[in-house]
Write a structure and sequence with these properties.
Layout lengths: L2 H7 L2 H9 L2 H14 L4 H25 L3 H8 L1 H33 L6 H17 L3 H29 L16 H12 L7 H16 L5 H30 L10 H16 L4 H34 L9 H22 L4 H27 L12 H26 L2
Helix pairs in contact: 2-8, 2-10, 2-11, 2-13, 3-11, 4-10, 4-11, 4-15, 4-16, 5-6, 5-15, 6-7, 6-12, 6-13, 6-14, 6-15, 7-13, 7-14, 8-11, 8-12, 8-13, 9-15, 9-16, 10-13, 11-12, 12-13, 13-14, 15-16
Amino acid sequence: MKKRNILKALGPGLLWAGAAIGVSHIVQSTTAGASFGFELVWIIIIANILKYPFFEFAPRYAASTGETLIDGYSRLGKWAVSTYGIITISTMFFLMTAVTVVTAGLVKNIFNSELSIVWWSVIIIIILAGIIILKKYSIIDSIVKFIIILLAIAVIIAVISAFNKGFNPNPEYLVHFDYKIDSNIVFLLALIGWMPTAIDVSVWHSVWTIAKKKETGYAPTLKEALLDFKIGYIGTVILSIAFLSLGAIIMYGTGKTFSSSGVKFAEQLLNLFTETLGKEAYIIIAIAALATMISTTLTCLDAYPRVLEPTTKILFPKLIKDNNTNKLHSFWLIIVSLGSILIFIFLLENMKTMVTIATVISFLVAPILGWLNLKVVTSKHVPKEAKPGKLLIALSWLGLVFLSTFSIYFIFIKFVL
């Protein structure tokens, strides 16, 4: 692979990382560390390993066929596209609400604003929707690349500084994870559900891959596309452990817990960094944390219209004409934006509830989407040399068993016992 070509191929994997490194890392991973120390590190590692194939199949399929995963689903039949569409529509408002509320909490805290978190959420959605209307993939691509690098540097420096100060939890406040407690199981599912992110984000990756190809005119090879993905994936794994470490070192064993209020949580999060790096680093950390959540919100808001546009065209070909593509994209952008805004105004109670609902739903539907991805990437129209090897397929089935078993267990303890 030539260095110049590798640089051309970089983008979709980092966009994927931008979508992943948000609530799952900043909220869930940090909370896991603050609540249970390093006890759940193994869960994060296992979740990342077992869910890896389902995300890797996206660039593999897109680079080898020139199609998105949605096109692959349509080859299986409309039932597959319908399944994906139903899952997407049923989860997107909760996901958008969760990521936007965290972003709004940071904005309100950083700027010490008297404007409510609800209205900050509305303002953020409107501004980001305006950026997306420009329909420039390159703008979003460039913004996210810069943000990911900024955050990675800030978090790694903070973790190193925290370790240097030592890890001395007070035995009086130590809390160990108990699998018999229902609330712990719900938290565990929420942690795995978005670790490193929801499996439906794999479809976004394939759409971004094709979008970049159309805009730049460069079609990356399979190796280049997989390298781009792996850089983003490995980065999310490292940062998830880093955020857990920050929570564990600074908050575990202190008797402190994270607030369910978006504003208070933002304040506590920023304090984690300033306690390790000093108050003089507040501005840098605030910018990095805010930029990360803005990039997550932006990539999510960008992705939903992108995936729902072709989904609608496949399911309703007689109603949708080719020249209505732009209108269809705008329609879904308005639906996603307005739906999220309505939840902010009428249904928002606290940040943790929104995050938990979104992440648990993502976990429960994960086996379905994972199986669809496996089915598509091993289908006949995928070139033989591009199909995953036996080890990756075996890991896929192991992941499906893991996700399905945990989902059944959750449903059993929640609705049967």
